[in-house]
Amino acid sequence: MSERTGVAVIGAGNWGSSLIAGLRAADLGPREVIRRNIWQRARLDARIIWLCVPDADIASVAEKLVARARRLRGENALRGQIVLHSSGALSADVLEPARRLGAKIASVHPVMTFPTHRIVPLQGVMFGIEARGPSVRRGLSALVGSLGGVSFAVKPEAKALYHAAGVMASPLLVSALTAATETARLAGLDEKTAAKWVRSLAEATAANVFTHGPQASFSGPFARGDVATITLHLEALAEHPILAGVYRSLAHHAVCRLPVKNRRALLQAIEIRCGQDKVRVGK
Q1: How many Cα neighbours within 13 Å face the side chain of 186?
Q2: Where are the domains of the chain?
Q3: How many CA within 13 A on the CB side of residue 31?
Q4: Rounded to an integer, what distance in angstroms lies between the CA atom of residue 5 and that of residue 31?
Q5: What is the mean pLDDT of the chain?
Q6: How many other CB atoms sit within 10 Å of the CB of residue 185?
Q7: Kindly report the CA angle at 253 between 250 and 255, in degrees rounded to 5?
Q8: Which letter does DSSP use for residue 47 in this model?
Q9: Phi/psi of residue 105, each to 5°?
Q10: What is the value of pTM for the model shown?
Q11: Are 106 and 92 in contact (CB under 8 A)?
């Protein structure tokens, strides 16, 4: 992209730092990086203005952007520009103030985890694009491609479910693995052995799921319909309610969605220990 059609980045946190590095690696700038409390120096003259701030801050940052742009250039100050945010949960409608000032609005969500300021390369990263109009979508897809990413479309009305899936695939996966490690520690394994033990199982399982599919990768007592073993697990976990809750929630999903034997008996064993939290499934 030429300088006239460059990218301004608002926010240089965990994700923003990786985006800035990705833009530099692709020789795309950025044209401007706007951090907190320096709005008085913001030019806001880039073709694309990309908000990389937490979801809770997007609306207020959009208002600051609009106020600064109006002071610089008056009404319709953002005409011909694209203002977008990085949220996977919120639609582009949260940027409505920028649209009223003439901008096209959109969202581009990186499907990747950015837990620290450590730079994450963007090559091969998927980006979910929500855009109003094919020309905006094509332009943002081209930008993603220039960063080395792969784009796909996201419907605004489906973004909450879309983002929930991402949370289950990353931060809640961390939670599930942490719960497994904690349970191994309760069984007497030292910290190093517990982590290595869980990692060996989790990595092999993940590789199987993405190579052979979940149906062909599901094994263990649920697949066998081993009610006695599952009952033993629940009894052992009874003194650890948080870990027991993780086990039961995942067990509910397994019984409902994955190939198990003795489904009714398994369901009964889980229901007995779940109070009113019952799952209804077919035979």
Answers
A1: 14
A2: 3-156, 169-272
A3: 17
A4: 9
A5: 92
A6: 15
A7: 110
A8: S
A9: -120, 150
A10: 0.88
A11: yes
Q: What is the CATH number of domain 3-156?
A: 3.40.50.720
Q: Which of 79, 2, 15, 17 is nearest to 44 (CA)?
A: 79
Place of tokens 């994450």: 120
| Res 279 pLDDT > 50 | no
CB atoms within 10 A of CB 175: 13
Compute the distance between CA of residue 43 and CA of residue 31 in angstroms, rounded to an integer: 10
Q: For residue range 158-217, what is the model confidence (pLDDT) as tens digits?
A: 999 999 999 999 999 999 999 999 999 999 999 999 999 999 999 999 999 999 999 999
CB 81 within 8 A of CB 8: no
DSSP state for residue 101 in the 8-state scheme:
T
**Tens digits of per-residue pLDDT, 94-148?**
999 999 999 999 999 999 999 999 999 999 999 999 998 899 999 999 999 999 9
| Alpha-carbon span 142 to 120, nearest angstrom | 20
Tell how strand 32-34 and strand 82-85 pair up: unpaired
pLDDT for the residue numbered 5:
63
**Token pair of 153 as six digits:** 């479309």
Q: Is the pLDDT of residue 258 over 70?
A: yes
Half-sphere exposure of 133 (CA within 13 A, CB side): 8
Per-state percent for the chain, helix, strand, coil, to nearest 5: 55, 10, 35
